[in-house]
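#struct-help
A.M.: can someone run this one for me? Single chain, 128 residues.
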Amino acid sequence: MTRTPLANAELAIMDLLWQKERLTARQIREEIYNDNSKAQHGTVQRLLQRLEDKGFVQRDRSMSIHFFSAAISRQAYAGEQLESLASKLTGGSIAPLITHLVEENKISQNEIDNIRNLLNDANLQEEA
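D.P.: on it. Structure tokens below:
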């Protein structure tokens, strides 16, 4: 299931939830906006509702103050978006993306080693 890409403001909220795991709307507003304007509180509430409607955020209503947490991991969202991008640009192949990252030195040796291990593990599973 590929979700629609997040808008920048939605992504900022998700980034906070991925980092801190569980926050109130007020805590999110204070992290994103330095002043305590009521208009910004409404904006954060609308963004949280939109993210909840899209299935990105879970709301804990068990207390008088609602807590919000990510319903999808950063890795899962990134994977969905990479697959969508590959589908649009390269007929579904991720290889051109990886090739570009390696050629442009945008991927560390440690990341290359992790990918190599994943590929080796996948090959072993296919052979079994």
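A.M.: thanks! The chain has two domains: 1-91, 94-128.
D.P.: also worth noting: The first strand starts at residue 23 and ends at 24.
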